[in-house]
Amino acid sequence: MFSFKQFTIQQNRTAMKVCTDACVLGAYANQDAGERVEPTTEVSRILDIGTGTGLLALMAAQRNPRAVVDAVEVDDAAFSQAIENVAASPFADRIRVTQGRIQDYQPAIRYDRILTNPPFYTNHLRSPDAAVNRALHTDYLPFPELVEAVTRLMQLTGQWWVLLPPYETDLLDELAQKAGLHAFKRLFLRHNAQKPAFRVVSGYSYTERSPEQETLTIYERTNVSDQTKTQSKEIYTSDFRSLLRDFYLIF
To answer: Core-most of 61, 79, 173, 249, by most CB within 10 Å?
Structure first.
């Protein structure tokens, strides 16, 4: 179980658990999701592709109080757990969880924001657990099929936010550009200032421009003293605290 300020994630039956990089995606992608929506006339619509526990859908609903969120999940156990997590949250009336492949998903609307934390392993060893393989390996959602789904489901004025390692981000970029999607924002996520980025949050739209680039460092070291000694301790950076403050109980 992972408790946030406004909701709780039960995750005992899902292959993919709550992780720091997914929380960063949920917080960063939804900072301005409702900025173009007139408060008295429109409701923003957000899609979470491969919702797993429902984490990104719940973060999106919390950050965007007028948004309607659709979440799609193919795995049986993850789908049922997402249903339970959403039902137990304050946002149950604004989130709908649907079971199935995003390749087959045919809603009557298009979305203002699409969030994706997709599988990205290609040639790695398979797990004996089929649910783990679905969550991690691109066999179940190849990048070309993901891009096709996004272009089919997103408004022309919409934004697509995706989390990937750096190498896979480059691969996705090529496919996205061929489909007319262009990165407008990049957040490079690293463990500390001495480490290279291990994940990239990318925002795509149909408008061609040079992407803004930022780096978010999760940890920094500080000296902590008591009466007998001083020792170095790893703590969260102020930037990380600021980004996750609305969600993490410890901030």
So the answer is: 61
